[in-house]
């Protein structure tokens, strides 16, 4: 084990006075982060879940790993119970002063408590703290309650230069020398996280469409396990599916061949997951529960976004149509799926192969729900919505481009999966509707200028009558 990891393994876990000294800074900084889930509601306080000193603050650079709960007023949803406080993973660096290169990472200047007179910042932007994490994974270190584990058959070389990934959403990532990428989960919940569970299952199946986990971070607290991060091979030279689609759109180039190949890749992953993990049959009772969840999300969305309300009856009809088929005796197969599939979750290698990443699912949904078997059309609906989003990124919207991509994707899926998703239009419409409802709420909260994109789909879905 290196000197750095030996040193951090013997340090003392700081007390809650550390959090008290950071509290006023975090109240301002945390809500501005892209991955903060409680947008639009003030932070009223923090409570400490766990704190681990990774580098002592008495040195030139201090480093703390914190798990904190951010307390906020509950969103005003009639009849809904108060939401529990979200737990966030923070990696806080401490210096006397920040060099100019770290200015964008500034959290603030601490004025009281054990860190008074020091400057706190987001440590993932700093190579040294990022190196500490990789070295801990390589050495399979145990530091306080933190556990750094890895596949014994996979080597992690030391000396890989880290760099933060700037285009992040609900989590944060660091690339090490174009060899590995470490994804740190920001919103932490106890239990088996699908972002580790599913890639491990796919690795056992030998599925080449998903990078196999090399190492992972977790912690044990009060008898419960939390996954904190996953290290996977970095796909060198790969193009993000969203950025690739936008580039092709800007040139008015056809994307049908890429969409078809992506459909095949999706079906490969679904087939491997069905082999690796149990599948279930959804009968009338299970279907009603699924539809009830869709209706509940629609009702909450209509309360939060008034622009959705005129379309609510037509959208409910899309959900009711699934229940009607179930009552007539139709059943569906459910299995583990990606859970939040869109173009941004796909990478295309220079050789043209597609890779699927980020199996966490929608972070806003409960972990138990994200781990439930689902019809595969849930993933397919997410990708169809993503093509629509890309088409609306240009003016005028490229509706024909989206339709071509949607058709090509479904055809490619059928080539491997054996069945075209469009042959089940009622279930597909319901899942696409559920996804569009989610998008309406998301855009209303985070990107109001984009609200018309899902609303245009809402108008179509509220009037569609699939046969």
Can you describe what's shown?
The protein is an alpha+beta fold and 467 residues long. Helices cover 40% and strands 20% of the residues. The protein has a 7-stranded antiparallel sheet with strand order 6-7-12-13-10-9-8, covered by helices on one side. Helix 5 (241-250) runs parallel beside helix 10, helix 10 (377-391) packs antiparallel against helix 11 (399-417) and helix 12 (425-446) runs antiparallel to helix 13 (452-463). The radius of gyration is 23 Å and the shape is globular. Residues 1-14 have low confidence and may be disordered.
- The beta-strand count equals 18
**Approximate helicity band:** 25-40%
Number of helices: 13
Low-pLDDT sequence parts: 1-14
The main sheet comes to:
7 strands, antiparallel
Portion in strands: 15-25%
Provide the spatial order of strands within the biggest beta sheet. 6-7-12-13-10-9-8
Count of discrete domains? 2
Estimate the global geometry from the Cα principal axes: globular
Mean pLDDT: 92
Query: What gyration radius follows from the Cα positions, in whole Å?
Result: 23 Å
Indicate the structural class: alpha+beta
Q: What's the end-to-end separation, in Å?
A: 64 Å
């Amino acid at each position: 084990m290196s000197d750095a990891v030996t040193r951090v393994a013997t340090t003392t876990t700081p007390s809650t006075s550390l959090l008290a000294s950071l509290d006023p800074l975090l109240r301002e900084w945390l809500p501005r982060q892209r991955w903060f889930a409680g947008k639009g509601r003030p932070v009223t306080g923090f409570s400490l879940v766990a704190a681990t000193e990774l580098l002592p603050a008495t040195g030139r650079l201090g480093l703390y790993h914190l798990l904190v709960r951010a307390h906020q007023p509950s969103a005003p949803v009639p009849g809904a119970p108060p939401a529990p406080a979200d737990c966030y993973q923070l990696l806080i660096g401490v210096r006397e002063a920040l060099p100019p290169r770290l200015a964008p990472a500034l959290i603030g200047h601490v004025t009281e408590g054990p860190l008074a007179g020091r400057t706190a910042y987001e440590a993932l932007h700093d190579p040294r703290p990022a190196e500490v994490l990789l070295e801990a994974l390589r050495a399979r270190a145990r530091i306080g309650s933190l556990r750094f584990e890895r596949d014994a058959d996979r080597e992690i070389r030391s000396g890989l230069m880290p760099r933060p990934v700037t285009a992040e959403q609900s989590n944060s990532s660091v690339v090490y020398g174009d060899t590995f990428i470490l994804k740190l989960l920001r919103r932490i919940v106890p239990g088996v996280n699908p972002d580790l569970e599913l890639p491990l299952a796919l690795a056992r199946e030998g599925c080449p469409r998903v990078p196999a986990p090399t190492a992972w971070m977790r912690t044990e607290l009060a008898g419960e396990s939390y996954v904190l991060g996953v290290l996977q091979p970095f796909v060198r030279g790969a193009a993000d599916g969203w950025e690739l689609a936008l580039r092709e759109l800007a040139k008015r180039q056809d994307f049908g061949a890429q969409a078809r190949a992506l459909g095949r890749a999706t079906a490969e992953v679904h087939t491997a997951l069905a082999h690796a993990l149990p599948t279930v049959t959804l009968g009338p009772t299970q279907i009603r529960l699924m539809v009830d969840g869709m209706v509940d999300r629609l009702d909450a969305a209509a309360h939060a976004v008034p622009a959705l309300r005129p379309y609510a009856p037509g959208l409910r009809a899309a959900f009711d149509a699934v229940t009607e088929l179930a009552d007539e005796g139709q059943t569906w197969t459910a299995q583990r799926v990606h859970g939040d599939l869109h173009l941004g979750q796909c990478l295309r290698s220079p050789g043209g192969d597609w890779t699927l990443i980020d199996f966490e699912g929608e972070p806003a949904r409960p972990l138990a729900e994200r781990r439930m078997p689902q019809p595969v059309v849930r993933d397919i609906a997410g990708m169809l919505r993503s093509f629509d989003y890309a088409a609306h990124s240009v003016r005028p919207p490229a509706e024909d481009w989206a339709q071509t991509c949607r058709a090509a994707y479904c055809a490619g899926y059928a080539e491997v999966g054996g069945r075209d998703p469009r042959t089940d239009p009622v279930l597909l419409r319901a899942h696409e509707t559920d996804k569009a409802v989610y998008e309406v709420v998301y855009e209303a909260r985070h990107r109001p200028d984009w609200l018309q994109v899902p609303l245009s789909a809402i108008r179509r879905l509220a009037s569609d009558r699939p046969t």
